[in-house]
């Protein structure tokens, strides 16, 4: 049947039907080729297969097919037809090759997966970067110049080519600075067209020689023409070179060779706007670093989407070395950067590009600000550069520097050349394994995160009376153990890099039930040592304290009674008047009179109050501990007794029903939350502790920028999840996005567990010699990390446990991402719980799940959908900002 959107007016429409069948891989086996023209349709077929081909044509051109012709659109009195001719042949169809053209091929051959790509660019050739836009006026030329400036700021040299032969932009900017350019892009095309030397060396050498006189601020300028009078007289065009050469991608090759002759690091080409044959020689070359510039206007987005679809149809990136394109959203108001203004268009473009973006790949997206000063560019190069720097666009395009391969001659820094990779992997695995569970207490040092530094800095003179909030896996028990190991506040504060004027003793009162024997002994020893120094008798054990609190849970105490209960527990836990009622009130007086200072530390509340979400007595007990005890202690003269309480966020929200947000805000500086930079600093710290010779000074780590930390971690996991020139995602971005929930939270336990598993899975690899953790191991570590996280959540979060159990019981067909609320059989309240906890994100009527949850809940992907790790992480970041 003829597609509904096609009308057979001419042979072009007849050919369109064949083209669609070719794309859909629906050609009969006996059809070798097909050729259409105004005088007929000729079918090249294998001997004896005419009947099969005849039936196929009858089906696809129904109801306009006849035995030897196809009926075209006509008026009744003048019927028009297209004859059909049959030609038997024994020839094999040629191996198809990519051709940079938007025009139809003269002959249609059967669809083939073995499309011959262009030759891989030699490693010593500079990358060719092409700027393209569907519409003019979106800032394409401006951004090409901005990237050139950003590159030269990094001491790289650039060849900047004005490839817009219809409406030159760069050429105008240099007219005053370079009024008589020595050579032009038009000259290069004409010289190459008539050059018979191997690889056009004669022409390229001549142009390279002349360009030595066109070097400005580290940029070689190749204008479109040598004078404005030449704009209308272009005899040799890019398509002429392509048509007359055996190399369909000659344009890329000659520009790369010219760049090599000049010794530049990057070749930048500003292309004409629209779907022009002037641009296709580069934008359909999968080796080219293609940058598509668009505003947020509907026409510009729709046109850019169509360009990406054409790339997917005609020139997909199939090799690891072929880079994915990049997108620049230009002229975006500052207050719209992380809103649906950008998110929706971005998703539209990613959808258009899905045919050639594989799993874990991602298109780099850059947002540049609206700058009214650049709406009309000044006439001189110097003024343009000055305005560009002030606009912020040069800084905004800096992520493109990481997207491009390192300059020729540069190399990824070695990690520890004196040690074998297997040894390095083993050391990281062993240390990370010890860190995964703080309950083992095998590690006696810690990384001083910003919250811990703030906790220490804010309490250099006064004792801390604070609640430290954190999710399971955020490091509560680990931090609890590190604090009590120091036995006094002065030592702990000093190890965070701060100074302190008090040496208050530290005593654990309650600890996690899950502590292993070694950790329990540490807790007991510190408890006894502190009691001994204070000259108190035998402290009450954690087990006895827990039993006492459980007994009181049946008595229906009010908050005031629970406060007294907690104060007594604190006194008994340090050995002061054990079993005596009212000991807690007397303890502070005793400490004050004897000029003693004490800090008690509490952890493991989730073990003691397992029904906190619906048991009113437990909620009162927790409310008294979290609110009334700190308030009472803060009022004591001299504040001789401090307290640090480690607690989960969901417990706080359940227990403190009124003013919970106010309380959380009060202690927010000390909350155990891991942002991107702190997560990366933790990775560096773990690596340095495992490998003392790792090239990083931990003293400088707190002040390093994210970019500097990222560079430091290249020896650990490479720049990308593949070779540096591959189209794979950047390692840092992928790891952080894959381990984060949709609230932008990443837990330290997940990160450390990931390092342990990835190191283990990298152990016996011999291929990757430039990094410790290999790409496959990084990807393969995610399922195990996710499964362990789900298990842990199900032990701590009752609400999520019930929903997770429901999701795990779904039929396989319903456990697919994206999913609808109805397919997942979830109530509105259950979906809200998942959204609040960062387990899902909503996109129209569909819901997506981050990788750290998806694997553990055994959710697959619909069809050939790819895990949108980075794009969904960006959407989540935008919604939470």
From TrEMBL:
Residues 128-165 form the AAA domain. The keyword ATP-binding applies. GO terms for biological process: negative regulation of cell division. GO terms for molecular function: ATP binding; ATP hydrolysis activity. The keyword DNA-binding does not apply. Signal peptide: none annotated. GO terms for cellular component: cytoplasmic side of plasma membrane; cytosol. Keywords: ATP-binding, Nucleotide-binding. It comes from the Bacteria. InterPro entries: AAA_dom (IPR025669), P-loop_NTPase (IPR027417), ParA/MinD_ATPase (IPR050625), Sll1717-like (IPR059206). Pfam families: AAA_31 (PF13614). NCBIfam families: AAA_KGGVGR, ATPase_Sll1717. This is AAA domain-containing protein.
């Amino acid at each position: 049947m003829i597609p509904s959107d096609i009308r057979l007016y001419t042979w072009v429409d007849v050919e369109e039907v064949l083209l669609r069948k070719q794309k859909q891989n629906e050609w009969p086996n006996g059809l070798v080729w097909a050729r259409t023209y105004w005088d007929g349709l000729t079918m090249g077929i294998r001997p004896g297969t005419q009947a099969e081909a005849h039936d196929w044509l009858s089906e696809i051109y129904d109801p306009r097919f006849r035995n030897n012709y196809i009926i075209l659109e006509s008026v009744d009195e003048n019927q028009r037809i297209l004859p059909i001719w049959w030609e038997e042949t024994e020839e094999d169809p040629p191996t198809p090759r990519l051709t940079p053209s938007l025009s139809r091929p003269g002959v249609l051959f059967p669809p083939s997966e073995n499309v011959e790509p262009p030759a891989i660019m030699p490693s010593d050739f500079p990358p060719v970067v092409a700027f393209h836009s569907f519409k003019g006026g979106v800032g394409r030329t401006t951004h090409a110049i901005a990237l050139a400036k950003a590159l030269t700021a990094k001491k790289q040299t650039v060849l900047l080519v004005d490839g817009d032969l219809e409406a030159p932009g760069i050429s105008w900017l240099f007219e005053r600075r370079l009024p008589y350019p020595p050579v032009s892009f038009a000259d290069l095309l004409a010289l190459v067209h008539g050059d018979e030397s191997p690889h056009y060396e004669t022409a390229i050498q001549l142009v390279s020689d002349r360009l030595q006189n066109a070097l400005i601020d580290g940029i070689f300028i190749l204008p479109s023409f040598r004078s404005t009078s030449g704009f209308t007289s272009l005899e040799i065009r890019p398509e002429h070179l392509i048509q007359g050469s055996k190399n369909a991608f000659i344009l890329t090759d000659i520009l790369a060779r010219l760049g090599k002759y000049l010794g530049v690091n990057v070749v930048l080409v500003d292309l004409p706007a629209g779907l022009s044959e002037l641009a296709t020689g580069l934008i359909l070359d999968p080796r080219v670093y293609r940058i598509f510039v668009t505003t947020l206007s509907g026409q510009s987005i729709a046109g850019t989407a169509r360009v990406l679809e054409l790339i997917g149809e005609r020139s997909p990136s199939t090799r690891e070395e072929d880079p994915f394109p990049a997108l620049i959203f230009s002229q975006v108001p500052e207050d719209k950067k992380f809103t649906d203004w950008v998110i929706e268009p971005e998703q539209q473009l990613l959808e258009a590009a899905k045919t050639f973006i594989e799993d874990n790949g991602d298109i780099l997206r850059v947002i540049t600000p609206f700058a009214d000063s650049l709406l009309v560019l000044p006439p001189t190069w110097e003024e343009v550069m000055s305005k560009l720097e002030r606009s912020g666009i040069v800084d905004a395009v800096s992520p493109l520097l990481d997207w491009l391969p390192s300059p020729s001659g540069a190399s990824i820094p070695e990690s520890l050349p004196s040690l074998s990779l297997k040894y390095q992997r083993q050391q990281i695995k062993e240390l990370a394994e010890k860190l995964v569970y703080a309950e083992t207490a095998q590690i006696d040092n810690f990384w001083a995160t910003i919250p811990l530094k703030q906790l220490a800095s804010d309490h250099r003179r006064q004792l801390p009376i604070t609640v430290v909030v954190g999710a399971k896996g955020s490091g509560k028990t680990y931090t609890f153990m590190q604090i009590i190991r120091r036995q006094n506040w002065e030592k702990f504060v000093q190890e965070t890099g701060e100074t302190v004027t008090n040496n208050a003793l530290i005593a654990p009162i309650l600890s996690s039930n899950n502590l292993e024997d070694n950790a329990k002994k540490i807790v007991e020893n510190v408890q006894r040592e502190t009691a001994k120094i204070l000259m108190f008798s035998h402290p009450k054990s954690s087990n006895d304290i827990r039993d006492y609190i459980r007994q009181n849970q049946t008595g229906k105490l009010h908050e005031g009674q629970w406060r007294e209960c907690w104060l007594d527990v604190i006194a008994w836990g340090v050995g002061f008047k054990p079993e005596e009622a009212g000991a807690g009130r007397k303890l502070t007086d005793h400490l004050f009179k004897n000029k003693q200072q004490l800090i008690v530390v509490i952890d493991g509340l989730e073990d003691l109050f397992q029904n906190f979400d619906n048991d009113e007595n437990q909620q009162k007990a927790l409310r008294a501990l979290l609110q009334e005890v700190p308030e009472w202690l803060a009022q004591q003269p001299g504040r001789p007794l401090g307290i640090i309480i480690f607690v989960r966020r969901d417990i706080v929200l359940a227990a403190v029903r009124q003013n919970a947000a106010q309380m959380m805000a009060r202690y927010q500086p000390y909350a155990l939350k891991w942002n991107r930079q702190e997560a990366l600093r933790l990775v560096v710290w773990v690596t340095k502790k495992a490998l003392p010779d790792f090239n990083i000074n931990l003293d400088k780590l707190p002040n390093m920028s994210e970019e500097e930390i990222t560079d430091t971690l290249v020896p650990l996991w490479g720049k990308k999840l593949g070779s540096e020139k591959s189209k794979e995602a950047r390692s840092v971005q992928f790891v952080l996005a894959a381990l984060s929930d949709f609230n932008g939270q990443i837990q330290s336990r997940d990160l450390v567990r990931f390092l342990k598993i990835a190191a283990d899975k990298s152990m016996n690899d011999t291929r990757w010699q430039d990094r410790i953790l290999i790409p496959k191991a990084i990807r393969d570590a995610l399922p195990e990390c996710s499964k362990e996280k789900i298990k842990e959540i199900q032990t701590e979060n009752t609400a999520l446990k019930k929903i997770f159990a429901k999701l795990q019981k779904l039929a396989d067909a319903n456990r697919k991402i994206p999913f609808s609320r109805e397919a997942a059989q979830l109530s509105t309240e259950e979906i809200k719980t998942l959204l609040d906890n960062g387990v899902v994100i909503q996109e129209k009527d569909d819901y997506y799940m981050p990788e750290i949850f998806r694997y553990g809940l055994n959710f697959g992907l619909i069809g050939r959908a790819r895990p949108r790790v980075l794009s969904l992480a960006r959407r989540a970041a935008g919604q939470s900002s």
